Amino acid sequence: MFWFSWRLNAKPRKSRCPDEGENVKCSFCGKDIEKGTGKMYVKKDGSVLYFCSGKCEKNMVNLRRKPRKFKWARQEQIE
Length: 79
Fold this sequence. Notes:
Shape: globular
Helix content: 25-40%
CATH class: Mainly Beta
Number of domains: 1
């Protein structure tokens, strides 16, 4: 029974999913993402990125671009 003791003392994990009513913003362009849309990308180090479209995901993850260099990505962050 000693190998089960770590489970009894474990603290509940914090959920990565946003709560109901909590808006999520795109990690690249800053646009609000409606519930049930977009993608959640989890990196190897555990950090979570949210994307509103494939365009944003491709630019940040695959092409490793910075959003501050693109006018279309900065427009949402300025407002």
